[in-house]
Amino acid sequence: MVANHATPGRRIRRTRTSGVGIPPFVGLVLAAFLVVATLTAPVPALAVGDVTPPVLAAFSFTPTTLNTSTGPVDIDFTATVTDDLSGVRYVFVYFVGPSGQNAPSLIMHDAGSYIWEGTLTLPQYSEQGDWVLNRVRLIDYAGNERVLYRADMQNVSYPTVIVVSEPDSDGDGVLNDVDNCISTYNPLQEDFDEDGIGDACDIDVDGDTVLNADDMCPLSTLVPPDDLKKNRFAVVDGVFVDGKGTESGISISETFGCDEDQIIDLMGLGKAHDRFGITRSALLNFISAYES
User: Fold this and answer.
1) Is the pLDDT of residue 5 over 60?
2) What is the DSSP secondary-structure string of 107-172?
3) Do 251 and 240 meet the contact criterion of CB atoms below 8 Å apart?
């Protein structure tokens, strides 16, 4: 700002005013203070960086045993996953089928409160056997990844196997596809005549053509003597035939389901009958005795 002092007869004098100046040494002190303050200021946590992958705290799925013969089956998965800074972004689950083929991968979704959920669908007629967990992948927003393989999961007692099987209709522990009596409880699968029908549901247990209800000897072996003679008879295809192939005219149904061995035992006949076969007269005597 310039002021003019005009006094007649005197020379004009000019003066200038300005703000208060800062001595140079003061500016240097301030600059040094700012540098120190910047270097010692606290650093925000995120500036350190997220280098830790997510952690799996819980893992389960249901059902663990299923049947896909009537249609596809959904398997529901639940996991608890935590992360220290950036947060969990992805949870993937991978299974391998009984023949080594890969199942459709499962991408779980965030259900809130660290819970992740998802559903894996096995299609109808999926291969029977054990579908085994291959691995679980956990990825956070910073790109950190943790991979847990089957052994890792087993070490902390997490489930790792889905069993695909046919149903067991009678609850005897034998699946329908191999059960010889699908609707009748028979865990031992006994089959006396080896016809593929279990004794528990076979209406002719010994296969002698005489139904159980009418069979006086329900466990006929139907094995003729090795030395079957002429005019000595044994059951062949439900009829008593001698060693020359001549039929006696008597069927096993007429002897109430009893073969030659059982008749010999019941009648107390001699060893010759055991060795060579039963006579026709002995057969007729047996029929007459038991008809009365």
Assistant:
1) no
2) E-EEEETTEEEEEEEEPTTPPSEEEEEEEEEEEETT--EEEEEHHHHHHTT---EEEE----TT-S
3) yes
Indicate the pLDDT class of residue 28, thresholds 50, 70 and 90.
low
Q: Is the pLDDT of residue 2 over 60?
A: no
Residue 131: exposure state from Cβ atoms within 10 A (0-12, 13-18, ≥19):
buried
Distance between CA atoms of residues 177 and 179, nearest Å: 6
Q: Which two tokens stand for residue 224?
A: 């003729």
Q: What are phi and psi of 269, to 5 degrees?
A: -80, 165
Q: What is the chain's percent helix, strand, coil content, to nearest 5?
A: 20, 30, 50
Whether the model clears a pTM of 0.90, i.e. scores above it, the answer is no
Residue 33 phi/psi, 5° resolution? -65, -40
- Give SS3 for 70: coil
Cα distance between the two ends of the chain: 153
Tell me whether the omega of the peptide bond preceding residue 63 falls within 30 degrees of 0, making it cis: yes
In the chain, the domains with their CATH numbers are 55-164 (2.60.40.1930), 212-291 (no CATH)
Rounded CA separation 271/225 (Å): 12
Q: Which two tokens stand for residue 116?
A: 């992740």
Q: In one letter, which amino acid is 65?
A: T
Per residue in 225-263, pLDDT (tens digit) is 889 999 999 999 999 999 999 999 999 999 999 999 999
- Work out the percent of the chain whose per-residue pLDDT is above 90: 69
Residues belonging to the chain: 292
